[in-house]
Amino acid sequence: MAANAATATAGVFGEFRPANHALTVVGLSLATFMQVLDLTIANVSLPTIAGNLGASQDQSTWVITSFTVCNAIALPLTGFLTRRFGEVKPFITATILFSLFSMMCGFSTSLGMLVVFRALQGAMAGPMYPITQSLMVSLYPGHKRGTALAMLAMIAICGPIVGPVLGGWITETYSWHWIFFINVPVGLFAAAVVAGQMRGRPEHIDKPRVDKVGLVTLIFGVGALQILLDKGNELDWFHSNTIVVLAIVAAISLTVFLIWEFTDHEPIVDFRLFRHRNFAAGTLAMVLAYAMFFSTSLLVQLWMQSTLGYTSIWAGLVSAPIGVFPLLLSFIIGKYAARFDLRWFASFSFLVIGLTCFMRGGFNTQVDAYHVAMVQLIQGLGVAFFFLPILTILLSDLTGRDVSAGSGLATFLRSLGGSFAVSIVTYLWERGGAINHANLTEHINDYSGRVRTGIAATGGHVQQYAALMNHEITRQATQISFNHLFVVLGFIFLALIAVVWFAKPPFIKQGGPATSNAH
User: Fold this and answer.
1) pLDDT exceeds cutoff 90 at 59
2) Residues 26, 136: contact at Cβ < 8 Å?
3) Which residues pair with 111 in a beta bridge?
């Protein structure tokens, strides 16, 4: 019956429209939110997971690394999957398997078992977001594409914010197993809805050969690079033989991969999408801006917990105001985006986020939660004008299955850029803290009157005073490093304004059918 109704209404927004448009949007949104949420929901539960499964804290980080590595590998394969199987079937299959592997994560009785199922979960998560983008866009006429992207932008912003808070609450209130079990009903419901509503959707399916060389070099190259970025700080970078080997494997594999993909007739990753000007400019702006934004978010979280002494849950709550403006404004921006030049929206976004970086550059160790939260709130205004305009720009000259292929490639590069930036910024923060600590201790000596007074205040316990002093110097040193980094990040955001102006309007089709996925 749903198929007949859908067929009857076909042509309203292109070649196909589901029987219940709103229900279809809900199903797609729930699956995307579940997938995005899982990027961060397990982070705060790692100590508990490690304790329950008899693993060390360092070993438990593979719960995160395994997910991100397989996710990064699967993302650029989206284009190939949609060419070979269409869009609906891969989406439903990935959503069901994601739910199944989530359940197996919850039932895991050892760290090895959990890491394996997290890896499989990450592999299924890879194509879900890009295909959702393409399916969502196809549900709306061209001039309402902003409405579809607004919902996805809101999910992409709010998922990582909600994840740590929800994960911490579930772990403390129930058990860490439930951070995975909650995906099962959500995923199965979403898959059932989309399967029912999208039945009969016309899709053109090719039978491209499997680019085995591209696939193997992609797996080895991206896998080695992602592990290198995730473990670099922990293993002291190139002082570790493991990191050196990973770097060599990544360099050789990715070099062969790029040469092969640019010369092969049926590449598994279609880099020819960059021939589209707006896709190239939009993707560059998205990768650079997201990398910097992701770095600021992580750095603020680390700073609140290590320097200000917040718990992970409180750090999440103080960070949460960043989602207020995106929640309030995303649909409004999506509705009226067609009336404006989206480059101005993106420029405003980078300006606001840059200013908040400068604000944080003036923080000290005495800053209260209110001021931290207010800066987060202001940054949220910039974020509200960031994702939707940039997404619209980079997808504006793509049609058909190129939407999911381009979205997968852009999301892959965005994720990789975020991993690079996080590793670099974390290293610079820690390195800057060490240098500042050395500089500050030069001013401490036994002949200082303040030192003698401090020792006397502790009842003459020199070691106790030294420990207290070292703790405070460490706090101040990391605070100075934090301030310097945010000033630099502020200037980078201002410089990014120039990047987005390489794109060329129009970015939104006025009227006409939705982007068709059938040819």
Assistant:
1) no
2) no
3) none
Q: Identify whether the C-beta of residue 63 lies closer than 8 Å to the C-beta of residue 115.
A: yes
Q: What is the pLDDT of residue 257?
A: 87
pLDDT in tens, 202-222: 777 777 677 788 888 888 888
**How far, CA to CA in Å, does 31 sit from each of 82, 94, 298, 438?**
18, 10, 25, 49
- Distance CA(69)–CA(348), nearest Å, equals 33
Distance CA 17, CA 13 (A): 6
Closest Cα to residue 319, out of 302, 337, 344? Answer: 302
Task: Kindly report the three-state secondary structure assignment for every residue of 414-456.
Answer: HHHHHHHHHHHHHHHHHHHHHHHHHHHHCCCCCCCHHHHHHHH
Q: In this predicted structure, what is the pLDDT of residue 372?
A: 92
What predicted TM-score, i.e. pTM, was given to this entire model? Answer: 0.76
Q: What is the mean pLDDT of residues 28-33?
A: 86
Q: Would you state the pLDDT for residue 447? A: 53
**Amino acid identity for residue 45 in this structure:** S
Centroid of chain to Cα 363: 26
Residue 506 preceded by cis peptide, ω within 30: yes
| Displacement of CA 430 from its chain's centroid (Å) | 22
**Residue 321: closest CA among 384, 389, 391:** 384
Reduced to 3 states (helix: H, G, I; strand: E, B; else coil), residue 212 is helix
Residues 6+ apart with CB under 8 A from 100: none
Q: Which two tokens stand for residue 33?
A: 């939110």
Tokens linked to 167: 């994960």
Q: Are 393 and 285 in contact (CB under 8 A)?
A: yes
Residues whose CB falls within 8 Å of the CB of residue 89, separated by 6 or more in sequence, listed in order = none
In the numeric block, which tokens belong to residue 63? 């719960």
Residue 366 is which amino acid? Q
456-511 per-position pLDDT tens digit: 556 655 566 566 777 778 888 889 999 999 999 999 999 999 988 988 887 666 54
Q: The domain 2-201+268-431+488-500 is classified under which CATH number: 1.10.3720.10, 1.20.1250.20, 3.10.105.10, 3.40.50.150?
A: 1.20.1250.20
CA atoms within 13 A on the CB side of 228: 24
CB 146 within 8 A of CB 97: no
Q: Where are the domains of the chain?
A: 2-201+268-431+488-500, 212-267
CA within 13 Å, CB half, 106 = 19
Cα–Cα distance for residue pair 365/237, rounded to 1 Å: 29
Cis peptide preceding 267, ω within 30 of 0: no
Per-residue pLDDT, 10: 39
| Residue located via tokens 């058909």 | 400
- Say if residues 302 and 363 touch (Cβ distance below 8 Å): no
pLDDT of residue 249: 92
